[in-house]
Amino acid sequence: MQWIIFMLLLFISSMEMLTQNRWKKQASAGLLENCTGCILCSEDNGCITCHHRLFLLIWRDGIRQYGMCVHTCPPGYFGVRGLEVNRCTKCRSPSCESCFSRDFCMKCKDKFYLYKGQCFRQCPPSTAAQPGTRECQETCEPGPWSEWSACTHENRTCGCKWGVETRVREVPEAAREEGAACPPLQESRRCRMKKHCPGDKTEPRNKSKKRQKKPKTERHVGT
């Protein structure tokens, strides 16, 4: 009876070892598929180190951390090359699709607008969305108009019947640096000039009227 129990336990132990070996072979096959480009790979955590031209991408699945070697970092990550390993680092903002550094976004996801490295649902005040780019740009709000200039024509202020006068307004320095599209900064209009300049000789007007000749009256001498 003891011999039969011993043989039964030996059979069960052999089956467990066979099952474990089969699972290890399957895990090794899957590991080789998921360890492409890896120098060092773990059964539990995937790639640990990559070849020097590749980036190590690490993501979390619950409490598990998994690594993979990629040629380019996926959206939401940016590549950082190091002496020992190149890593894909996640952008800090979840609305950022592509970033230059952790805190500086270069392209936002749909329904977001980019302004100075940050993503917004709407463009901030004093900015406007540029068509086709989903980027916010400073709007140009010029200052008040100046007084109208002197009425001139070919750099002369007199001697002509009509001339042109202009006025201008200034643009804030911030808007100029951002290259914002501004409304017209200069206006011109037609104006009346002094026809005669001081010192010009003018022909005197002849106000005298022609004297009318009175008809001669003939005196008749009585006879």
TrEMBL record:
Main subcellular location: secreted
Subcellular location: Secreted
Keyword check for Calcium: no
Gene3D superfamilies reported for this sequence: Hormone Receptor, Insulin-like Growth Factor Receptor 1, Chain A, domain 2, Thrombospondin type-1 (TSP1) repeat
Biological process terms in GO annotation: Wnt signaling pathway
Biased composition (Basic and acidic residues): 197-206
Signal peptide feature range: 1-19
Positions of the UniProt region annotated as Disordered: 191-223
Gene Ontology terms: cellular component: extracellular region
R-spondin Fu-CRD domain ranges (all copies): 35-136
Basic residues composition-biased segments: 207-217
InterPro entries in the record: Furin_repeat (IPR006212), Growth_fac_rcpt_cys_sf (IPR009030), R-spondin (IPR051514), Rspo_Fu-CRD_dom (IPR043601), TSP1_rpt (IPR000884), TSP1_rpt_sf (IPR036383)
Keyword vocabulary terms for this entry: Developmental protein, Disulfide bond, Glycoprotein, Heparin-binding, Secreted, Sensory transduction, Signal, Wnt signaling pathway
CDD domains for this protein: FU (cd00064)
GO molecular function term, any single one: heparin binding
Family: Belongs to the R-spondin family.
Protein name: R-spondin-2
Gene: RSPO4
